[in-house]
């Protein structure tokens, strides 16, 4: 009887662990990189997601939305590619100094005065959702092309690392 109870307990635990992994429908976390800030991600199907990023940097703020495909990577459960496209709006305070950021900001306009930027974004990276704990980590690039209201054009590779709490 004890062996039967132990076997049922192990099967129930394995089922719960699988359900916890399968229930990654929404995540909230942080992204560190060119666009650093708060990230929100919703899984819309087994292979698609939408992600929003609220980015903060020296005297600037951005809002990015990306539609992602996320097929499984290397036949490892919980490991997914992130491939996506989207757009962003960036708001700059007066006297924003673009070249004070990381090395990949070298082509950013030197000073932007109270400007608005509109851009198109792409995304390529990989994400791992831990099977037992509600945590996902990611690394990748979010290259974008931005046009400002002052007529400037800016292209950035925007590498980043993310850490999300998955629900």
Explain what this protein looks like in three dimensions.
This protein has one helix spanning 2-22; strands at residues 26-33, 36-45, 48-57, 60-69, 79-92, 96-97, 111-112, 116-129, 135-141, 144-148, 153-156, 159-166. It is mainly β and 167 residues long. The protein has one domain (2-166): Porin (Beta Barrel), CATH 2.40.160.20. Strands 1-2-3-4-5-8-9-12 form an 8-stranded antiparallel beta barrel. Strands 6-7 form a two-stranded antiparallel ribbon. It is elongated and about 50 Å long. The two termini are 36 Å apart.
Continuous helix count: 1
- The CATH class: Mainly Beta
Backbone shape? elongated
CATH second-level architecture: Beta Barrel
Helices and strands in order, then pairings?
Layout: H1 2-22, E1 26-33, E2 36-45, E3 48-57, E4 60-69, E5 79-92, E6 96-97, E7 111-112, E8 116-129, E9 135-141, E10 144-148, E11 153-156, E12 159-166
Antiparallel strand pairs: 1-2, 1-12, 2-3, 3-4, 4-5, 5-8, 6-7, 8-9, 8-10, 9-12, 10-11
What does this entry show, briefly?
This protein is mostly beta strands.
Key structural traits:
1 helix, mainly beta, 167 residues, 13% helix, two-stranded antiparallel ribbon, Porin
